[in-house]
Amino acid sequence: MSSNHYRSLVRAHQQRIARLRESHSRKIHEAAKHGEAVRKTAVEATRAQSASTAKTKQQQAQRYDGLRAKAETDAAKILADINREMVRLTADKQRLDKALEREQINESRKLRAEQERLQRKALQDAQAKSRQLGSLQVGLAYQVARADELERELAKLKEPPEQIQILFFGADPGRKSEKALDLQNEIRQVNAHIRASKHRDALKVDSHWAVQAEDILQALDESEPAVIHFSGHGTPGGHLVVETPTGEPHVVPLQGMLRAVAGSKRFLKVAVFNCCHSHELAEQCSEHLIAAIGMDGAIADVAAKDFAARFYASIGFGQDVHQAFDRAVTQLEMKYPDEAHIPQLYVNPLAEEGELTLVKP
What we know:
This is CHAT domain-containing protein. By secondary structure, this protein is of the alpha/beta class. Helix content is 61%, strand content 12%. Helix 4 links the parallel strand 1 and strand 2. The longest helix is centred in the first third of the chain and has 78 residues, at 51-128. The two termini are 26 Å apart.
């Protein structure tokens, strides 16, 4: 099978896994809702002033409990489907890697055969025209030129990948409280994972702390980054929380941040909003960029840090945005499974497949 066939299979697996994860999340929420209904009706039953009312409430509680149990069973089945799909995805990724390797070997063989053919032809021409000094000089010049061309191509292959700049915004108006975010440790983890990646020199992180609203546009215009990363707080509705000059919270409306992103699409490719309730902002930003990542609800600080570190490490290994996001979510599934459904990736449907790979060796 060709690599295109396995690439299609991998994409299909990823899409099915995404749909299954959405279904799993809905079932978990449904089970929680019925569980809360069980608790409420049970309390109402204990407070009922008549035996008939208490019995009715108990029956309701039993019905809700049955619905809860069914939702949990459905969620477990979906999770099993996800695991099976992950196994198939891993197998097809391995087959894809092997197919790519085979194609590369075949291409190399064709290239060597063509080079040998050209060399034989050049030799035959040189022998046929060995008595003609002018023809010999032409043949020699051709060989020199060919060697120079191969040397230039080899030098180009050895050139490092184009450097990708990541603009990191950190804002935590509550950093002096007990609920302060560990933003400095997050950027430390990100930098450490990038340094441990294969193409560490291709990624450069420029961090800005205690960010105020006016800092965002200034930093975008100065740096013209390919990626922006916002860590801090978000509010329901997709608004970001930055700081005032006195360290107080200031809410940047979704439309304001969206306009800043859309106005930077000439150089900006990916936006990562590593803060609570940011999925709506990310979804709208993806209409102007290649892709965007946001959080569908509140996410724990430790999970957010691990997600960011793994995502950028995978980018540093040359993986595309889809693969890096999947790696980061897998990290959460292994360490913080209750948080794994929160990150959401939105890819612009007009983006070409090659554009999703930020680091291109």
